[in-house]
Amino acid sequence: MSGPQEPLVEVDRLAAALDDVDPPTVLDVRWRLVGPPGRDDHRAGHLPGAVFVDLDTVLCGAPGVGGRHPLPDPAALQAGLRAAGVRAGHPVVVYDGGDGMAAARAWWTLRWAGHRPVSVLHGGYPAWVASGLPVSTDTPSPTPGDVVVRPGGLPVLDAEQAAALADTDDAVLLDVRAAPRYRGEVEPIDPVAGHVPGAVNLPAGEYVGPDGRFPAADVLSERFAAAGVTGARTVGAYCGSGVTAAQAVLALHLAGRTDAALYVGSWSNWVADPVRPVAVGQTPGR
User: Fold this and answer.
1) Which residues are catalytic?
2) Average pLDDT, the chain
3) 258-285, pLDDT tens digit by residue?
4) What is the mean pLDDT of the segment spanning 46-56?
5) Measured between alpha carbons, how far is residue 175 from residues 16, 167, 209, 215 in Å?
6) pLDDT in tens, 144-187
7) Could you read off the pLDDT of 116-133 as tens digits, one per residue?
8) Cβ burial, residue 1 (10 Å; 0-12/13-18/19+)
9) Which of 37, 45, 196, 230 sits in a 20 to 30 Å window from 175, CA-based?
10) What's the rounded mean pLDDT across residues 248-253?
11) What value does the mean pLDDT take over residues 30-54?
């Protein structure tokens, strides 16, 4: 079974792959920061055979000082992925409600866990429906998988490493939150407003559309270069809790920067320690 191998898969290719004798495992990871849970969306309709996997309880650890969406416990993640039918070395496709953020975090988590190959359905569930492809309300009963979680498949930053990256001339730490949050003018979720000193603001809307679709690789490269991601400069990314920034890491992969690191705890972890410095304003404020 060849299955999708790239970071992104279009609906037509996935539809063809689902007709294979041994189709890819499809995970529905629809999620909202606030509002009805994604499981309700899954019950209302999903890709045929897709298994719902909860971002908050399976793909991430419990919220706390590590942030609102910290790394999951490897054993718990392995159990959750096996229950969803994920098999060692077998292709996985993840999709969400269309903005691409939850799917990107799922893609990142599976890659971090050592699983290959895994792809994001470009455009998510809305793209599938818009193409007139079938949906299902059946509750899937997957055969348990045998995936083995081996953490370390993608680079991770902790708070100290993120600070060092932001304070180094040959590196860049991207803050991909909206500009008013970066500047410290508003903070709707976390207790302190501002940004990591030295971090450069590149709001997510500058490299991905609201429909979760990415521009061409050369366009992505230009946009990241404008933010300082040039040459051999080390690059990392953070957001509020490591979900939107996982999408930034996916975009960086598409632009050829497969070494990009994710500060998983992100701002929610940074401000958990009142000793850590906070910068405000439009400039990085190193």
Assistant:
1) 239
2) 95
3) 999 999 999 999 999 999 999 999 888 7
4) 97
5) 38, 14, 17, 20
6) 999 999 999 999 999 999 999 999 999 999 999 999 999 999 99
7) 999 999 999 999 999 999
8) exposed
9) 37
10) 98
11) 92
Own/partner pairs, 165-169, CB within 8 angstroms, 24+ separation? 165/234, 165/236, 165/261, 166/196, 166/197, 166/198, 166/199, 166/284, 166/286, 167/197, 167/198, 167/286, 168/234
Instruction: Output the six-digit token pair for 129.
Output: 């429906």
Q: Please state the length of the chain.
A: 286
Count of C-beta atoms within a 10 Å radius of residue 88: 12
